[in-house]
Specification:
Shape: globular
Structural class: alpha/beta
Radius of gyration: 24 Å
Number of domains: 3
Number of helices: 15
Number of strands: 18
CATH topology of the largest domain: pyruvate-formate lyase- activating enzyme
CATH class of the largest domain: Alpha Beta
Bound molecules: iron/sulfur cluster
Distance between the termini: 54 Å
Oligomer: single chain
Length: 511
């Protein structure tokens, strides 16, 4: 399927291409001011600035002829509104006109309307913070973004839960959270694009990496102490942070306790132990020793053939066995991840995953929907003709499984508490974290809602600094590969500390 959007508006090209791409998994979308002769569908989009608003007109024409689908969308812009508001109105009107034309033509209704970004719940927080009421917020989400009632209800539940768990969510900007990236895994999963390098046979580089990580943690600890900045949460991710040995974990957590000031006041420390094949009694003992309260053990699915297909190299039995082992070692806050839409899976396999989850009852369950990330092995192999091996469920089944997750969690006392979306996510759905009340991951909320700066250390860790006055976000990415990290962690840490100092200066000036 080739869709072409004809528009003079260069600024909107990306937004429009992203919206059109929602309508066909294999859609090739082009945008530009001229016609594309080989396009099957062409949407001509005109935008005009009017007194008091903007008008977008879309006309969808098929190559084979026929009556065009014509849509008009208007957005109000008050007189004297800043340029930014007019730009947003243009984006919303053009997006909505294109969306409605494609919805009419295909019969597919997009649950998230024109939204293609990662963090829809920020739209609610933003409005609540500005003092907008619930009804008014709902109306705006429907009218401006065309989000479905079902997704608005989900967002409301999530935001309510976040504010119940973190009543001071809007006032935590004076603290930071830490993210520690450990970039190793036993093998690489086919759908993964995280910094995850095969740990086998690379012990030398693991040691060198950890030496750098210890130093970097020490530098950040010094900065926290010097500036009196508190830490709200700490999250070890990667990769799989339990890929390293029990001794290496022990040394790392000992250092954390030594260098992070007031660690007893940190509200939550999470270690992803995602791959069950990395979990051992010795490592669980280390987690217990350092009172690490929250871990993740990720089945992704309880269908063995799928695990084999996606290259996870562990068994379903091992997931269950390691979960029980973790319980035996006192782990009282365990998260499990499931993925909807793994290759070869439909509602039947997903129902099995939920039934198996019921036997374990982890404190939280994160339900992802598969996305075909451009750099993953799975996407590459599908492109290269291995489509059968990675065939996935259709849109209707994906929607059905998303609802199954919501119903199952509701019936079992879990509450949705964070949500994010990704590009090329199946069925244009979302990833949702569900938790038993009181067992939500605070880090996930803070990171997703971008209410607080995150200081990332280690491989592939991205720091996000939030300007206290404007809310503007700047990012600092640590090197992704262990080798590059080993060579340049110090430069990256120094740049980060300079940026953190600048952030504090701006905060002082803003007070
Ligand atoms: S275990 Fe997680 S981080 Fe490691 S390769 Fe698989 S998906 Fe990626």
């Amino acid at each position: 399927m080739r869709i072409h959007i004809r528009t003079e508006d260069k600024v909107l090209e990306r937004t429009l291409a992203n919206i059109a791409a929602l309508f066909a998994d294999d859609a090739s979308v082009t945008v530009g001011p001229a016609d594309a002769p080989d396009a099957e569908w062409t949407v001509a989009l005109d935008l005009s600035d009017l007194d008091g608003g903007v008008l977008a007109r879309a006309a969808l024409v098929e190559a084979g002829g026929g009556e065009p689908v014509r849509i008009e969308q208007r957005r109000r812009v008050p007189d004297g509104a800043p340029d930014e508001e007019r730009r947003a109105a243009r984006r919303q009107a053009a997006g909505a006109a294109l969306l409605e034309a494609l919805e009419r033509r295909t019969g597919i209704v997009q649950p998230w309307g024109i939204l293609t970004g990662v963090r829809p719940t920020k739209l609610l927080h933003d409005r609540y913070r500005r003092g907008l009421g619930r009804e008014e917020t709902r109306r705006e989400l429907r009218a401006l973004y065309r989000i479905s009632e079902e997704k608005i209800a989900l967002m409301e539940r999530i935001v309510d839960r976040q504010l119940a768990v973190l009543p001071d969510l809007y006032d935590l900007g004076h603290e930071v959270s830490l993210y520690v990236g450990i970039p190793f895994c036993p093998t690489k999963c086919a759908y993964c694009t995280f910094p995850a390098y095969d740990i086998n046979g690379k012990q030398g580089s693991v040691d060198d990496f950890l030496r750098g990580l210890h130093e970097e943690m020490r530098m950040i600890g010094d900065w926290l102490r010097r500036t009196g900045t508190g830490v709200t949460t700490i999250y070890y991710g990667g990769g799989t942070p339990t890929s390293i040995s029990a001794e290496q974990m022990d040394a790392l957590y000992a250092l954390m306790h030594e260098v992070i000031p007031n660690i007893e006041r940190v509200r939550e420390i999470t270690v992803e132990a995602g791959r069950p094949d990395t979990i051992t009694p010795e490592k669980l003992e280390v987690l217990r020793k350092w009172k690490i309260g929250r871990i993740s053990i990720n089945p992704q699915t309880y269908t063995q053939a799928t695990l084999d297909r996606i290259g996870r190299h562990h068994t379903v039995g091992e997931t269950v066995e390691k979960f029980r082992l973790a319980r035996k070692y006192g782990m009282g806050n365990i998260n499990m991840d499931l993925i909807i839409g793994l290759p070869g899976e439909g509602p039947e396999e997903f129902a099995r995953s939920l039934a198996e989850t019921e036997k374990l009852m982890p404190e939280s369950l994160t339900v992802h929907t598969l996305s075909f990330k451009r750099a993953s092995e799975m996407t590459r192999r599908r492109r290269e003709g291995d489509g059968d091996r990675y065939r996935v469920a259709g849109r209707e089944d994906i929607v059905r499984m998303t609802r199954m997750a919501l119903e199952w969690t509701d019936a079992h006392g879990y509450v949705p508490y964070y949500l994010y979306r990704q590009k090329n996510i199946l069925g244009n759905q979302e990833n949702v974290g569900y938790a038993k009340p009181g067992r939500e991951s605070l880090y996930n909320i803070l990171m997703m809602e971008e209410m607080q700066s995150i200081v990332g250390i280690g491989c592939g860790a991205t720091s996000k600094f939030i300007d206290p006055a404007t809310g503007e976000i700047t990012r600092h990415a640590n090197p992704k590969e262990p080798k590059a990290y080993i060579e340049s962690w110090k430069r990256a840490a120094e740049a980060k500390i300079e940026a953190l100092d600048r952030m504090l200066e701006r905060r002082a000036a803003a007070l």
